[in-house]
């Protein structure tokens, strides 16, 4: 039986980071999981390469769009290889096969009467390739906040409005079509509010898939991008997809547009869309401007890909937003992997070496561990079926700690001193139980920790490759007495926090610099020291002591305060300053302040301001007014 799953295809105008890795790692985990359940699982990912901003980025990098895309797509592929992910199809939207499938899909929709030509005038965000239908000129993009651009063009439209009922029906009859529930509700209310037709082509860019016979129309990015899921497996009999894994910000495109396109074309719909949450860095959104984007490569190099996988799956409830931090990553690693799993493996295997010359002894009935292991096998599948990865992992760690306690209670080191047969039999049973539990734990963790479980597996002396394991063959008792264990070596050495973090940050800087070169972006210049100025320049600034006479907040502004200030001239000055969030009118009236008196006048919210009030800027820009400790006459000059 087949199981076809996908990740989003990533834009090539950003370099891969831990957010992209998150989805792709989960997809890899799920593929391995489905394989263990006996499915022939196939995973597609890829790169989204068309659009204005790719053209622009290429230009900036001094490359043709094609060369630019080749380089960035290769970088994504390299990342996935480095992380050891089992990708079956890396589909690029610039591949000829993809173009054909997009054109066919369009033709089918057109023949079925769901495409028409119309004129589009509206706001468009070039950074997100987003037509912001509800926006007015000058409005910011709802995604990135940058100003939208007004465009008018002849477009082909897709009759999305014809699908409102059909979509609602789909969500109703297949309640697990969109998961988790919060996202499902969001989509339902979006569709209930009414659907407007969708522009699916554009004429104002060259870097896109041409609409056959309709030059200069090229496909609009979502019609192009979503079709990757089909084009990647064309002719392989894998459609419909069983699962689209995505981030929550692209739910609408996947749960509304995509099924509508497919219905219009008369094609089968994907079975399920799961939208996970956002990965934040220390609770902040990762972004270029904040300079807090985390890359996977340094983590992989210093701690191994499994450490990252474990952290992402254990620490974050899949579906919800979660925070990444190096401290938490290393904390989890040391407590759960080094002390938990790693310790259980080395302790068990070492005892078998010591007390039984490296041979698995015949077992007893497994005591209370055997039923717990059976329950854990069921619990993991139950949780993973529901995408509750952290819960599944908790169950496995429950088993690990039960086995630890069992070993302590049985105290094999004491039993080993006794020559009595009963003690020796008990020692056998204890060692067998621990080793058999380790086998089960290792098998259960394989989808999450493929690299390290492979090592433990061979240390246990298992002959069957771990990749070919199935849940069916996992039952208690599978470990054979007499089996020789392999050579023991530590799988999760303890990691020193500071050393590891320093190393990762150092590598992070290197990787980021290399990626900037790849994307043709200039590294941020180091902040320069403020230039020194001659005293004459300073003396040009007329600084004076002023007394605030009146103050009132400016209407329709949170920040601005409208004041009149006596600076020793016949008439008080009108000054508008952005201090209303920090000071009330009452705080200001009667207060002595410092004013820049010879500044060119400036209109703020229609009021002409004749001067500037001097304040320090602290924290996020909170103003703190300059003032004096001694009494000082109004109008006094500062120099
Ligand atoms: N090209 C579109 C998707 C087209 S799918 C037919 C796109 N690309 S993207 O490069 O912006 O990738 C978005 C996806 O990357 C998210 O949906 C999510 O899977 C992953 N993530 C990127 N940053 C992320 C976080 N900070 N946190 C979690 N996942 C994130 O949108």
Q: Which short descriptors sum up this protein?
A:
639 residues; six-stranded parallel beta sheet; 42% helix; binds 5'-O-[(L-methionyl)-sulphamoyl]adenosine
Which ligands accompany this protein?
5'-O-[(L-methionyl)-sulphamoyl]adenosine
Structural class: alpha/beta
Q: Determine the strand fraction and express it as a percent band.
A: 15-25%
Number of strands: 24
Strand order across the biggest sheet? 3-2-1-11-12-7
Main sheet overview? 6 strands, parallel
Principal-axes geometry comes out as globular
Helix content: 40-55%
If you compute it from the alpha carbons, what radius of gyration comes out, rounded to the nearest whole angstrom?
Answer: 32 Å
Average pLDDT: 94
Number of helices: 20
N-to-C terminal Cα separation, in Å? 83 Å
Task: List unreliable stretches of 5+ residues.
Answer: none
Oligomer: single chain
């Amino acid at each position: 039986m087949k199981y076809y799953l996908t990740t989003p295809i990533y834009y090539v105008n950003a370099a891969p980071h831990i957010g992209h890795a998150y989805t792709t790692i989960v997809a890899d985990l799920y593929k391995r999981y489905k394989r263990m359940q006996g499915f022939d699982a196939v995973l597609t990912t890829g790169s989204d390469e068309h659009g204005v901003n790719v053209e622009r980025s290429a230009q900036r990098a001094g490359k043709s769009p094609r060369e630019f895309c080749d380089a960035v797509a290769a970088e994504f592929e390299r990342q996935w290889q480095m992380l050891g992910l089992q990708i079956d199809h890396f589909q690029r939207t610039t591949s000829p096969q993809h173009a054909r499938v997009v054109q066919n899909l369009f033709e089918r929709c057109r023949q079925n009467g769901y495409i028409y030509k119309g004129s589009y005038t509206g706001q468009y965000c070039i950074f997100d390739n987003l037509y912001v239908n509800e926006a007015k000129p000058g409005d910011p993009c709802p995604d990135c906040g940058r100003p939208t651009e007004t465009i008018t063009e002849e477009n082909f439209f897709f009759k999305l409005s014809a699908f409102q009922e059909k979509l609602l029906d789909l969500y109703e009859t297949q309640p697990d079509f969109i998961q988790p529930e919060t996202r499902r509700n969001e989509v339902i209310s979006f569709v209930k509010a009414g659907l407007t037709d969708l522009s699916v082509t554009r004429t104002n860019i060259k870097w896109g898939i041409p609409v056959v016979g309709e030059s200069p129309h090229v496909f609009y990015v979502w019609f192009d991008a979503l079709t990757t899921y089909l084009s990647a497996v064309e002719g392989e009999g894998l459609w419909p997809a069983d699962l689209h894994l995505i981030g929550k910000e692209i739910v609408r495109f996947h749960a509304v547009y995509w099924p509508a396109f497919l219905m219009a074309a008369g094609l089968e719909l994907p079975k399920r869309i799961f939208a996970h949450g956002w990965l934040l860095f220390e609770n902040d959104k990762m972004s270029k401007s904040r300079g807090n984007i985390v890359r996977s490569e340094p983590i992989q190099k210093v701690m191994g890909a499994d450490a990252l996988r474990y952290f992402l799956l254990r620490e974050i409830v899949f579906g919800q937003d979660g925070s990444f931090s190096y401290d938490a990553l290393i904390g989890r690693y040391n407590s759960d992997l080094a002390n938990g799993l790693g310790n259980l493996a080395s302790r068990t295997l070492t005892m078998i070496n010591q007390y039984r010359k490296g041979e698995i002894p015949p077992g007893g009935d497994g005591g209370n561990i055997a039923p717990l292991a059976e329950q854990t096998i069921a619990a993991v599948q139950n949780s993973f079926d529901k995408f509750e990865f952290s819960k599944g992992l908790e169950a496995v760690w429950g088993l690990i700690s039960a086995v630890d306690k069992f070993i302590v209670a049985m105290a094999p080191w004491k039993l080993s001193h006794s020559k009595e047969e009963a003690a020796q039999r008990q020692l056998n049973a204890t060692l067998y139980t621990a080793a058999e539990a380790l086998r089960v734990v290792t098998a259960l963790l394989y989808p999450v920790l493929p690299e390290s479980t492979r090592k433990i597996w061979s240390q246990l002396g298992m002959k069957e490759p771990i990749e070919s394991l199935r849940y069916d063959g996992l039952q208690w008792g599978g470990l054979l007495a007499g089996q020789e264990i392999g050579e023991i070596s530590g799988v999760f050495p303890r990691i020193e926090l500071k050393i590891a973090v320093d190393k990762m940050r150092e590598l992070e800087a290197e990787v980021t610099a290399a990626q900037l070169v790849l994307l043709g972006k200039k590294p941020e210049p180091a902040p320069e020291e403020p230039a020194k100025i001659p005293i004459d320049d300073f003396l040009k600034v007329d600084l004076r002591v002023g007394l605030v006479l009146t103050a009132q907040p400016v209407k329709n502004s949170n920040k601005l305060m409208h004041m009149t200030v006596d600076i020793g001239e016949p008439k008080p000055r009108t000054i508008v300053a952005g201090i209303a969030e920090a000071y009330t009118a009452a705080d200001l009236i009667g207060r002595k302040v410092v004013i820049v008196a010879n500044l060119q006048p400036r209109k703020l919210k229609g009021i002409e301001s004749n001067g500037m009030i001097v304040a320090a800027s602290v924290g996020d820009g909170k103003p703190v007014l300059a003032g004096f400790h001694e009494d000082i006459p109004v109008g006094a000059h500062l120099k």
